[in-house]
């Protein structure tokens, strides 16, 4: 049986092998939200591949500003294997969970203040609109390749021609072989390990902290001490407490090592039907559990037009996806896309230890493009510093999100603002 995945804002087909397989459904009401939806939501299925035997479930949210001229965007959540409903309900969509304590009914929804849908549109009549690809985390591997493939398709004359203009990435996985070594230096910069331990790690491990030679006893011992120092740190946002998650990953270093080597991650997933195992509502991860109750509710699935027979939805499904790790380094894709003249926005939460901002800065510097707007703070409308930014000659803008974590959901208002300014061509 095919898995049930949700792709949010899958706006249009990018080559002739993608097909809308069912008539779309215009959703006017959703369980958990009081009254009619104040925006236009459409759902349906897209078949992928020559045989069409794989289907993706999509959401379309129409622009709330000016659909005739606003850009279109496809948003792809990372993982690999995590559902893009995370973007719709946690980070950049018009709806989010209220966060009330679960009472056994459908978790309630509310309108968000940070919605990116003041921009999102769909339908063939919008093919001339500027088109962007966006994503976060592991999508840093996928998005640059998708942009490149769209460009190749346009050059080959594949239809429909897509007016691709650029891409957006948050805390992107780009080159794990190099990025993995920045975790230790980030921990040092943030005061999570001592100067003495950091110095010893650099000397004993030679600056390489992953896939260490087992015979290097001093390095192994230092890494064991390091692991003890950070074992109770929430790597996705180091200021937040560790709360029970809906699935449990191995250690951060082991996770990156698995990505490098192509090994599957061993996950313990939340079943989505046991309210007794929920963390308290004050936990940041509480909404993850709510999403499982919501997405697996039969009334919700019926309202969204989900086909019968699909198995239980889970937020991340990594174990059972036949995923091939064939992009080990996304930097060449960034180079090719820059040569094509595509714009890009790369943003990093400055309290994310999974993909530290220093690792992102490093691969951007390796592109060796000149700086046209040097490092400076960018401000919220309240004249408060929201982060820092730098712009390069290859039309790439890098921005940090002050107090941000591994994805836009940790600071959605700041991420929404940086996106809106960038997409409109305004300075941050």
UniProtKB/TrEMBL annotation:
<dbReference type="GO" id="GO:0004185">
    <property type="term" value="F:serine-type carboxypeptidase activity"/>
</dbReference>
<feature type="signal peptide">
    <location>
        <begin position="1"/>
        <end position="23"/>
    </location>
</feature>
<dbReference type="GO" id="GO:0006508">
    <property type="term" value="P:proteolysis"/>
</dbReference>
<dbReference type="InterPro" id="IPR001563">
    <property type="entry name" value="Peptidase_S10"/>
</dbReference>
<comment type="similarity">
    <text>Belongs to the peptidase S10 family.</text>
</comment>
<keyword id="KW-0732">Signal</keyword>
<protein>
    <submittedName>
        <fullName>Uncharacterized protein</fullName>
    </submittedName>
</protein>
<dbReference type="InterPro" id="IPR029058">
    <property type="entry name" value="AB_hydrolase_fold"/>
</dbReference>
<dbReference type="GO" id="GO:0016747">
    <property type="term" value="F:acyltransferase activity, transferring groups other than amino-acyl groups"/>
</dbReference>
<dbReference type="GO" id="GO:0019748">
    <property type="term" value="P:secondary metabolic process"/>
</dbReference>
<dbReference type="Pfam" id="PF00450">
    <property type="entry name" value="Peptidase_S10"/>
</dbReference>
């Amino acid at each position: 049986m095919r898995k049930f995945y949700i792709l949010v804002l899958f706006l249009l087909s990018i080559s002739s092998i993608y097909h809308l397989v069912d008539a779309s459904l215009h959703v006017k009401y959703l369980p958990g939200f009081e009254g009619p939806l104040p925006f236009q939501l459409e759902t349906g299925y897209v078949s992928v591949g020559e045989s069409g035997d794989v289907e993706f479930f999509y959401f379309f949210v129409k622009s709330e500003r000016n659909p005739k001229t606003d850009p279109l965007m496809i948003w792809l959540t990372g993982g690999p294997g995590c559902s893009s409903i995370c973007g719709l309900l946690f980070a950049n969509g018009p709806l989010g969970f209220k966060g009330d304590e679960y009472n056994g009914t459908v978790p309630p929804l509310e309108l968000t203040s940070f919605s990116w849908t003041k921009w999102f549109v769909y339908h063939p009549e919008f093919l001339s609109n500027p088109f962007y690809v966006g994503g976060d985390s592991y999508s840093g591997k996928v998005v640059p390749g998708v942009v490149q493939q769209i460009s190749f398709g346009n050059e080959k004359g594949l239809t429909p021609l897509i007016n691709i203009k650029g891409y957006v990435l948050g805390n992107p996985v780009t080159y794990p072989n190099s990025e993995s070594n920045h975790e230790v230096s980030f921990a040092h910069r943030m005061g999570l390990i001592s100067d003495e331990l950091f110095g010893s790690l650099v000397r004993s491990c030679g600056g390489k902290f992953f896939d260490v030679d087992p015979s290097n006893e001093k390095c192994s011992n230092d890494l064991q001490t390091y692991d003890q120092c950070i074992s109770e740190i929430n790597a996705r946002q180091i200021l937040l407490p560790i709360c029970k998650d809906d699935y449990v990953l191995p250690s951060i270093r082991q996770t990156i090592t698995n990505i490098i080597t192509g090994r599957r991650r061993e996950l313990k997933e939340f079943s989505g039907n046991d309210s007794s195992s929920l963390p308290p509502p004050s936990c940041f991860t509480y909404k993850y559990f709510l999403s499982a109750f919501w997405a697996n509710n039969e009334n919700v699935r019926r309202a969204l037009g989900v086909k019968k027979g699909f198995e239980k939805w889970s937020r991340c499904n990594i174990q059972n996806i036949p995923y091939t790790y064939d992009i080990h380094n996304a930097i060449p894709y960034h180079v090719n896309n820059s040569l094509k003249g595509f714009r890009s926005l790369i943003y990093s939460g400055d309290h994310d230890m999974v993909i530290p901002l220093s690792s992102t800065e490093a691969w951007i510097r390796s592109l060796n493009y000149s700086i046209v707007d040097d490092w400076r703070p960018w401000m919220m409308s309240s004249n408060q510093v929201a982060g820092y930014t730098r712009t390069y000659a290859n039309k790439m803008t890098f921005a940090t999100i002050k107090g941000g974590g591994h994805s836009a959901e940790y600071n959605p208002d700041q991420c929404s603002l940086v996106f809106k300014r960038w997409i409109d061509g305004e300075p941050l």
